[in-house]
Design a protein that fits this description.
The protein is an alpha+beta fold. Helix content is 44%, strand content 21%.
């Protein structure tokens, strides 16, 4: 009997040692995998495809080893033990996730990365080679599916009874996989859509709206210039241009407007090209612009793209300076000021201004089409433009637009989830001029639980300041000040401010400069909207503060805000919520 007991004890000791040794080996492999992921990311960014493929193979070997070390029968048996079992089970699940990502995501992408790097997408003789993108589609799709599955698996790992080092490792894995999965989803949409959009399956036409931030619209600025892009098998040609003002006014909206859109922004949203972006709904703006182009030129476009001079300045970092027919040199440093301010003093005639804008767009487009730019800097420019709400895209094909849905490039309205509550701050010029070059915007948001029912109270604070010179009425061109033609004294800036909340938010109250305000309240679809008009003389500022009530399930959600892009990028600041004060 004693020998039986000793044998059992010996087996137990050996089993513990077995699990311990294999656990240390698995820990080594997982730590090495983390290091290799960092190396792989650097190699992919630098375009070193050979090194990236070798690193991907090493990563797969270490990940497979960790999975094997934590998958034998002894390890599985120990997973059912109290206390220690939950930790071993969590480590096993981490190893499985890492191995799945290495095999199903990293390996297929690394296999095509040699043919898909940023340099491959620079046009040659005015044409982008689409073949590498088409070949990459299956691998990128597989990687995206794998990462989405891994994200769900990582989130499902039970850490309620694990040691802090194990809990920390699981949380690190969750954050990393969630971030990469989100990035992969966006990349996959681009890879799946780009060939067709660039004419691989047939010719395409796109309308480019060049927005002017000196006269703000909710979507960015008035479409001061409009251009037609013809696309054929990777080759893009700018074939026609027109000023926004040249479209004139339609007798009625070119397409039916919703009651909400017409009530908030008026019938002019669908009557003037310069006003289609009064609404922050870019899909509405795009459809209106598309129809206006069709009615004037008889051409049906396949999509609409919008950008502003700030995005153009970002692109000029990639292309370098361009020479304009006027003799001006357009650079990343002077583009915004030249296009949104100096041009009005230098060329007082509006028709000459339109020609100047058209020549600037043509010159930059020609340089991009020729491939004479830094591809990495160009992609960075486009990414920054999208993230700052300056670059927007709508596609007429419903299936393609559905693939874009939810991405920043579509210009979505605020949404809310258990982790985030979004608000939108949209500005529309009411001066009838180009004074918004001088308008400074500051946004702050905050949230606190002030009620016994656990529902969070959130504030959105918008501060506007007119930074124009004190003598703006006389020192600035009449075209910039408006010369009082629309009822606003020269030098002053009048702005319509609309604050949007996500679905199910409840408006509680608002103040302006510390005093109770009486704004216009409305809805835009499911979104509560609070709107106020401000009028600022040079040097004057005003602060509009709005309070909303969310649901209890969002009590811990972070509050964020998106807003109309102005000359300078808006940084969202934290706002304090005083539960002891009235709403607003």
């Amino acid at each position: 009997m004693l020998w039986v007991v000793l044998a059992l004890v010996l087996l137990l000791i050996l089993a513990v040692a077995w699990v311990g040794v294999r656990g240390l080996m698995a820990k080594r492999d997982l730590e090495q995998s983390v290091q290799l992921v960092g190396t792989l990311r650097s190699e992919l960014v630098s375009g070193d495809s050979t090194a990236a493929q070798k690193t991907a193979e090493d990563l797969q070997d270490h990940a497979a080893s960790a999975r094997s070390l934590t998958g034998d029968p002894v390890w599985s048996a120990f997973q059912v033990l109290p206390f220690v079992g939950s930790n071993l089970r969590a480590v096993r699940e981490v190893a499985v996730v890492v191995d799945d990502v290495a095999t199903g995501a990293v390996k297929p992408v690394a296999g095509v990365i040699g043919n898909v790097n940023v340099k491959a997408f620079a046009p040659k003789d005015g044409k982008v080679d689409l073949a590498p993108l088409v070949r990459a589609q299956p691998a990128v799709q597989r990687a995206t599916t794998t990462l989405a599955k891994a994200d769900r698996a990582a989130a499902a790992i039970d850490t309620s009874d694990t040691l802090s080092p194990v809990t920390g490792a699981v949380n690190q894995l969750r954050n990393a996989v969630a971030s990469v999965a989100a990035q992969a989803d966006v990349a996959n949409r681009v890879v799946q859509l780009a060939p067709a959009m660039l004419g691989h399956d047939g010719d395409r036409r796109y309308l480019l709206l060049f927005q002017n931030n000196a006269e703000l619209r909710a979507g960015g600025g008035i479409p001061g210039a409009v251009a037609l892009l013809d696309v054929k098998d990777g080759a893009i040609h700018l074939s026609n241009q027109a000023s926004g003002s040249s479209f004139g006014q339609s007798e009625q909206p070119v397409l039916p407007l919703s009651t909400d859109t017409q009530g908030l922004y008026g019938a002019i949203t669908g009557e003037y090209m310069q006003d289609v972006t009064l609404t922050p709904r870019f899909d509405v703006s795009a459809k209106l612009a598309r129809e206006m182009w069709k009615q004037r030129f008889g051409q049906q476009v396949d999509g609409v793209l919008a950008m502003d001079p700030v995005t153009l300045a970002y692109i000029l970092k990639a292309t370098g300076p361009v020479q304009l027919p006027t003799g001006d040199t357009l650079t990343s440093d002077n583009a915004v000021k030249l296009l949104l301010s100096d041009v009005y003093a230098k060329y007082p005639d509006p028709q000459v201004q339109d020609a100047f804008f058209a020549s600037a767009a043509s010159a930059v487009f020609a340089k991009v089409s020729s491939g004479a730019f830094d591809p990495k800097a160009f992609i960075t420019a486009l990414t920054d433009g999208v993230q700052e709400n300056r670059l927007r895209l709508w596609i007429a094909d419903e299936s393609e637009q559905t693939q874009l849905a939810g991405t920043a490039v579509t210009g979505p309205l605020p949404t809310s989830s258990a982790s985030e509550r979004q608000f939108g701050i949209y500005l529309n010029d009411a001066t009838g001029a180009k004074m918004d070059f001088w308008l400074q915007k500051t946004v702050a948001v905050g949230s606190a639980v002030c009620r016994a029912d656990g529902r969070p109270t959130s504030v959105v604070q918008v501060t506007l300041k007119n930074t124009a010179p004190a003598d703006a009425a006389t020192s600035l061109p009449a075209y910039v000040t408006g010369a009082g033609d629309f009822g606003v004294a020269p030098g002053k800036v009048q702005t319509n401010v609309a604050v949007y909340a996500a679905k199910d938010e409840i408006y509680l109250g608002s103040t302006q400069d510390g005093k109770a305000a009486a704004p216009h309240t409305a809805v835009d679809g499911d979104h509560p909207v609070v709107q106020v008009q401000t009028l600022l003389a040079p040097g004057q500022s005003t602060t509009f503060r709005v309070t909303f009530l969310g649901s209890a399930k969002q009590a811990r959600a972070a509050v964020t805000a998106m807003s109309t892009p102005t000359i300078t990028q808006t940084t969202v600041q934290p706002a304090a919520v005083d539960c002891g004060k009235p709403a607003g």
